[in-house]
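Feature request, filed as a ticket because there's no other form

It would be nice if the structure record came with a short human-readable summary line next to the tokens. Right now we just get the raw output. Example of a typical job, pasted below so the devs can see what we mean:
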Amino acid sequence: MPDAPWHGDPSFWETLEGLMFPPEKLEAADEELDALCALAGVEAPCRVLDVPCGVGRYAVELADRGFDVTGVDATAAYLDTARQRADEAGVDAEFVEADMREFVRPDTFDLVVNAFTSFGYFEDRDDDRRTARNFYESLRPGGRLVMSLTSKEVLAGKFRERTWSERDGTYLLEEHEVRDDWSWIENRWVVVDDGDVREFEVSHRLYSARELSELLRDVGFDEVEVYGDREGAEYDQNAEHLVVVARK
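Raw output as currently delivered:
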């Protein structure tokens, strides 16, 4: 039986949890959501799908603001953390263990949020299309999709072959290689923690603003707007992220 892809390996997500979601990252959700909700033109109460939701960084904050929230993720350990965080915050949110290629609730949500470069994991382009179609189908007419990711244009402006970071004595060493005419990136991640060394291969598809916009229109979205940050800056050579707002 072939090995599971990196995104389907629970040990990858569990090993990287502290590095991906440090306290300051969790605290930043409040300010980030102020900007994203304003950009999408939504406010509570309405129904929101956060997919993949990870440890509930956005989902818990959205529930605290009065939104009716469903968080979907394929990593059971992250959902356990999200439920615990929701309990500690005294808020109600639904958390569902599911693959975003499979999860769909037709005509249910007013807003779908896909953030933190959580799109393009799959080698088969049809899986990306299927996921985007699930986003579309899960929205009510007039609903909005908000996506935030590192595009190929943004990556090209800051690309480095090797990087490293440290958090509380845990080191993350990364090697990056762009392949297939700038459509795919291969990453080697080495985690060093108290003498224990773990290595992971992490890869995903790279989208330009135009490519992602065309994909979203192809699956049915009527309007697709592109921005260079969460505050709605122009998407140009100074863009910090690719932020897309699409309307059903």
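Something like this underneath would help us a lot:
The mean pLDDT is 96.
Residues 10 and 75 are 6 Å apart (CA to CA).
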